[in-house]
Design brief:
single chain; about 280 residues; alpha/beta; 4-stranded parallel β-sheet; two-stranded antiparallel sheet; about 45% helix
Length: about 280
Amino acid sequence: MTKDSKTVPKPGEGKTYSLFGNDRETDAYYNRIRLLVDDLVRQDTDLHHVLEGIRKESRSTRHLKKLALRVSNVSKEASLARTLRGELSQYTVNVASHLKGLSLAQRWDRVLATSEEQYHFRMLEVELVNRVNVGEFHSCDMHLAFLPHCLHDVTVTCQSVVRGDDHICKGCSKVCALNAVSKLLRRHGVTPYIWMTANLRTLFRRLRKDGKKVGVLGIACIPELVRGMRMCMRVDVPVIGLPLDANRCARWWGQFYPNSVNVQELERLLGQAGLVRATDSS
């Protein structure tokens, strides 16, 4: 993909979503998501039941679009879909144009073909999964994080090396988001990996045979994060995570562009998990 005015994204712009919305920071997004989930929980205090309902409603793109657009539908699900459209559409302004540009083959890729309404429901799902799993995550024997390579400093050649179960950051760039996030996680007792080669199912089976209960923290673009969270929960691995501020990697744009994650929200999530920050001289 050539770097011209039509293809180079602006800072913080995502191919489909951006948690910056109309703001300079992503804090407002997280506050909005928390309020939306708080409202759902007031209506139904069973978090697992709420999560199951959100997942069920978001399976079909056509079903969700009908819920969001058909004003005559007064069901609770339709009301939620319309509320999410009103509250979250500023974060998904590029979804429609992205979907129009997909090839026929790409439309079969569930990640690439995620609809705008599905993005809204998946945003809720991430917050709900965190609330469901944060306590059990804390009680695990091991805490592992799997980070996306797209957080690396794109102006230098990444010097990460394989150590243990996957690649680790070597701190070669002081302005690299992977470097900053890896240091933060280590200070909280979480082992950070850059997910490039590890087969997570195989890893989980091996650790379980060794008698170790592992908790996972993931960071990824929204469709991939939800996909990974669901996989972890299917194999009974407590998982929590945060979405990238936008989707800006080669899968979406054809090449990598600088990306970020809300570090304050990451630290907040670690605090909720009861992982105390240790003193770090680095």
